[in-house]
Amino acid sequence: MECRIGCAACCSVISISSPIPGMPEGKPAGVRCVQLTEDNRCKLFGKPERPEVCSSLQASIDMCGDSNEAAYAYLSMIEQATSPD
């Protein structure tokens, strides 16, 4: 499955603990990644400086659903279920 262009749910909803260029402490849940363009495209896509965690995340029916809203809802649920807080 390919990512839906302009969705960026995984770049906004989930936390990322590894450093990201421009976010050396990683990215908290619910915070938009600084590497997203205004139309929700990753500025680091295909570049070596893209974090491994981002490169390894693969789109799937379970995660992405059939809409951006479904992806946001699913990832929010997963983030809450796995959050140490």
From TrEMBL:
Cited Pfam families: CxxCxxCC
Superkingdom of the organism of origin: Bacteria
Designated name of the protein: YkgJ family cysteine cluster protein
Species: Marinicrinis sediminis
